């Protein structure tokens, strides 16, 4: 199609978006033949900085960029959008109570969910990158009753990509020789990167590694705490890799996962693998044409079961908190 696809990005003047927008405009999600129109949402005080970003988008003369609109009103910016990348959020700062953080995010994701419900295109797909991503997606989804739940997702692709990179480094394989990686649960320190279904050159990764202690004591914490390691080294949180992961997530949702492989997306649970229905939890999924299916039938041993349950427990607590706050 030569009709531009309308892509909304929130937090458009922030760090992740500074990498994300230029890749979207270059065709990284929808390919080299599909024009894109950007709809950029920011809070009022950031609109001036956003103007500067738009000047740089203009200056890039992207052949596929059919238009850019900006604003601070989601009811206008989201009008007719086919894809909404919700990046702007209120992550937990030092000394902040979790309840306050969830409440602040409710103030962002409840109205954005409502606005998407009212003005987005009928085929809208939503990806939440802004933290706490799973529960922010839960809030948006529950405030958009007319949009099918399966259109809402949260980003665990950065964790997935980190899990591939760490496994590649350990085994000497290239990232392209690793398949069937899964992140289960929450995009948080409780996430579970699963080496019992991942494969290295076709061999089960846990067997290829052959060292359960390394998996438990080094691999899982390294992947789960990678965000903190980046902050420690850079003095700023991951931005370019988060943007790359957001692109991977959205591109694969439409373009599809490779035959025999899958990816990780946090999506509303249908009860698969004992995850309570309705929680937005990360699963192995196959994708095609903007739809996904949770991979079924994987055997979960006791070790994996404990890890998945612990992360899902955290999601349950977050859900109960936002329910108590009347946000869902
Ligand atoms: P920045 O603080 O640089 O940018 C966030 C932007 O969002 C700001 O410009 C702010 O004005 C805007 N914003 C706030 N409320 C808004 C609203 N109601 N509507 C529109 N815009 C709004 O953060 P950045 O480094 O870009 O990170 C963005 C988000 O991604 C954060 O929540 C962060 O925690 C999250 N991350 C998620 C990751 C993931 O894997 N899921 C990894 C990277 C990243 O840390």
Molecular structure report:
The chain is built from 11 helices and 14 strands. By secondary structure, it is an alpha/beta fold. It folds into 2 domains: 150 residues, Rossmann fold (3-Layer(aba) Sandwich), CATH 3.40.50; 161 residues, Lactate dehydrogenase/glycoside hydrolase, family 4, C-terminal (L-2-Hydroxyisocaproate Dehydrogenase, Chain A, domain 2, Alpha-Beta Complex). The strands form 4 sheets. A 6-stranded parallel beta sheet has the order 3-2-1-4-5-6, sandwiched between helices. A 3-stranded antiparallel beta sheet has the order 7-10-11. Strands 12-13-14 form a 3-stranded antiparallel beta sheet. Helix 1 packs across helix 10, helix 4 crosses helix 5 and helix 6 crosses helix 8. The protein is globular and about 55 Å long. It starts with a strand and ends with a helix. The model has no long low-confidence stretch (mean pLDDT 97).
* Ligand inventory: ligand NAX
Count structural domains: 2
What is the C-level CATH assignment of the largest domain? Answer: Alpha Beta
State the separation between the terminal residues, measured CA to CA: 37 Å
- Reported by name, the CATH topology of the largest domain is L-2-Hydroxyisocaproate Dehydrogenase, Chain A, domain 2
Provide the gyration radius in Å: 19 Å
Give the overall silhouette. globular
- Poorly predicted tracts of residues: none
Number of helices: 11
Which H/E pattern describes the elements?
Answer: EHEHEHEHEHEHEEEEEHHHHEEEH
Mean pLDDT: 97
The tally of beta strands, per DSSP, is 14
CATH superfamily of the largest domain: Lactate dehydrogenase/glycoside hydrolase, family 4, C-terminal
Largest sheet: 6 strands, parallel
Share of β-strand residues: 15-25%
The CATH level-2 architecture of the largest domain is identified as Alpha-Beta Complex
**What portion of residues is helical?**
40-55%
Structural class of the helices, strands and pairings? alpha/beta
